[in-house]
Amino acid sequence: MKNVKIVFSLFLLLSMSWNGSYASNPPVKHPTQRNPAKAQVFTTAKDTSLRLTQTSDVIFENFGQPFETQVCIFVNPAKSFQTITGIGGAITDASAEVFARLPEETQKELLTAYYDKQKGIGYNFARTNMASCDFSSDSYGYVTEGDSLLKSFDISHDKKFRVPLIKKAIQASGGSLPLFISPWSPPAWMKDNNSLIHGGKLLRKYNQTWANHYIKYIKALESQGIPVWGLSVQNEPMANQKWESCIYTATEERDFIKNYLGPTLQKNGMSVKKLIGWDHNRDLIYQRASVLLGDTGSAKYIWGIGFHWYETWTGSGMQFDNLRRVKEAYPDKNLIFTEGCVEKFNLERVNDWTLGEKYGHSIVNDFNCGTVAWTDWNILLDENGGPNHVGNFCFAPVHANTQTGKLIYTNSYFYIGHFSKFIKAGAKRISCSSNRDKLQSTAFINTDGKIIVVVLNTSDEKLPFSLSLSGKAAAVTSLPHSIITLVI
């Protein structure tokens, strides 16, 4: 334990050296007014002090036919695609409990770091758990056993930590933070295994009771001044976990939506709530989407299909093409990344550069495949990667040393910020192409006309390239293991 504390202290010192006095403010500089003849450049790079740091502007000059040996990224604003809903993270029990243990100044720092559009990275989207999940300190629900009429429904548990944090996040984000809810399990007595954990299935006789439960929870949150934007049907419906879980086959989820949840939302004046199916990995997303969206009875209630990135469970890889297949088959429905984190927390890895690179790789490719919203998992965890009542400790972009009251920002925070700080809700993705595999890229145009280009370099090479736009190009240099955002 003594060695762990020493490593943690050393990391705090390293964190502060990134950009001066780190503990007071994250090193983020907000963009100034755009000059159409040039682009502002913001860089995060390995083995440097650059963390979402504004570096020298680049100038656009006339540009003709590129040579085959020239490294280029081509942007075409005339070709636009999906409209972006938002980028953010989940406010879980774990995040809220850790937050409550921090000094007031550190709490303000975290809220600014995530939700402030100028001083922070401008999160404008959120998720939260309905009843307990693995990132809760205990298992709990909102109704007493056997209460099929839900007369005992009570969210007092949430009011202690989670509701206050969500309300503070809404305020920090400027008064609006679209939030969706996700259940990990129905109450144990509604399931065939009579347990919150280890999968199990919802008993058919409780289909309507469970549908009513979503309504109760939405109304309970909104009575606390927390508007609910949407909901997913079930977190990871094909995972039998040692924590809260519940299994739905594709046809079972389809029928629950078609015959119960969809009509119940409509009957209660909540048809505007965005209903998300699947909410699990990319490997089976096409099969699930084809069943849910191939039936007009269920499809009419579904806003989109949610997905996670935990390919390590199955060895399936990232499988971005599966997202493309869904978007091709159902172009009028939306794709939303609902959860991702780096698993198996280890304090010695908090400085590991691959943490952020996984985020960059996923976000670039998810957006390029048609995704409209991207939601990280826990916004905050403690120095052990929790709390978590089953020991499923994971990484978050920001960790807190609850002994010192200080925050630790992993490079994942900065990688996400290269998107969330600059790509606003309402932006449209535009055509963007790289002629080298070592440079991954995506581009957007905000409602104010600013063009945002994100370039990811996961190689060991320093790569100069030409950013080509409307017959002009700017000379840009991508450092090894870096991410760049250009604002034009």
CATH topology annotation of the largest domain: TIM Barrel
> What shape does the CA trace take?
globular
The fraction of residues assigned to DSSP E strands is 25-35%
CATH superfamily descriptor of the largest domain: Glycosidases
Give the total of domains: 2
Can you offer a commentary on this structure?
With 488 residues, this protein is of the alpha/beta class. It has two domains: 37-82 and 429-487, Immunoglobulin-like, CATH 2.60.40; 85-422, Alpha-Beta Barrel (TIM Barrel), CATH 3.20.20. It is built from twelve helices and 20 strands. It has helices spanning 2-17, 93-100, 104-115, 156-160, 162-172, 207-223, 250-267, 285-293, 296-299, 320-329, 354-368, 411-420; strands spanning 38-45, 53-62, 72-83, 86-90, 125-130, 179-183, 230-232, 274-281, 304-308, 334-339, 371-378, 381-382, 398-401, 406-409, 428-434, 439-445, 451-457, 463-469, 472-478, 482-487. Helix 2 (93-100) crosses helix 5, helix 6 crosses helix 7 and helix 11 (354-368) runs parallel beside helix 12. The radius of gyration is 22 Å and the shape is globular. The chain starts with a helix and ends with a strand.
